[in-house]
Amino acid sequence: MSSNYILGNRVDSLTLAAAVARVASFIAAGSPHHIVTMNAEIAYLAYKDPGLQAVINRAHMVTADGSGVVWAARKLGTPLPERVTGIDLVQALAAEGARRGWRFYLYGAAPGVAAAAAAKLQEEHPGLVIAGTTHGYLGPDAMPALLAEIKRARPHILLVGLGAPKQEYWIATHLEELQVPVAMGVGGSFDVLAGVVRRAPAWVQRLNLEWLYRVVKEPKRVKRALALPKFMLAVLHEARCRR
């Protein structure tokens, strides 16, 4: 698996199928692994935050979650085969997991959302084993009980939907203690899976405008979307420096 660097952040050159195969190898190994699904917003945050960048670069797999990262890799002369979004990877892992008997645990989002997302995944992928769900609105006092519950559940894959970069820091902090073979930050994927938020239509995704669709549907995301032009300018500057 080859890796590229965008603004100092590692991203692996993977197709969706290759990412699923990589996860299967992590589960077979049994030791804990951290997966980051990196979009342009996270990449720009990490560009400004050495601590977050270190978490990303220590992860065992980093996928290109979004067209912005694919564009950046192309501009920097290290093109990626395709984008591998968090929600697409979750769906692909659920399909594979239903066949292989992998156990999933979902942690994050508002009360009831992770449970609804789990039910939807089980409906779409018969035989999928959900080892547990917990919402993301827990204080520090509740953390020891949550960690104990996850350890008792013994999932193969832990999906963490706390939003970036909180989920990346959480996984990095607790991965060794939990000893989960695969822990992956999934952002707002639970909301989409549960039907709380609609994903952009396929034609919008093909035009690489999914980010704009989300801003239109959720105006509160405007501030976050402002990271995209800053990311693009930083990438263009890096591309000039590489020449």
Layout of helices and strands, plus pairs?
Blueprint: E1 3-6, E2 9-12, H1 16-29, E3 34-38, H2 40-48, H3 50-58, E4 61-64, H4 67-75, H5 86-100, E5 103-108, H6 113-124, E6 129-134, H7 143-153, E7 157-161, H8 166-178, E8 182-185, H9 189-194, H10 202-206, H11 210-217, H12 222-225, H13 227-242
Helix pairs in contact: 1-5, 2-3, 2-13
Structural features, described:
Keywords: Cell wall biogenesis/degradation, Glycosyltransferase, Teichoic acid biosynthesis, Transferase. It catalyses: UDP-N-acetyl-alpha-D-mannosamine + N-acetyl-alpha-D-glucosaminyl-di-trans,octa-cis-undecaprenyl diphosphate = N-acetyl-beta-D-mannosaminyl-(1->4)-N-acetyl-alpha-D-glucosaminyl di-trans,octa-cis-undecaprenyl diphosphate + UDP + H(+). Pathway: Cell wall biogenesis; teichoic acid biosynthesis. Catalyzes the conversion of GlcNAc-PP-undecaprenol into ManNAc-GlcNAc-PP-undecaprenol, the first committed lipid intermediate in the de novo synthesis of teichoic acid. This protein is of the alpha/beta class. It has one domain. 54% of the residues lie in helices and 16% in strands. The strands form 2 sheets. The chain has a 6-stranded parallel β-sheet, with helices on both faces. The chain has a two-stranded antiparallel sheet with strand order 1-2. The longest helix has 16 residues. It is globular and about 50 Å long. The model has no long low-confidence stretch (mean pLDDT 91).
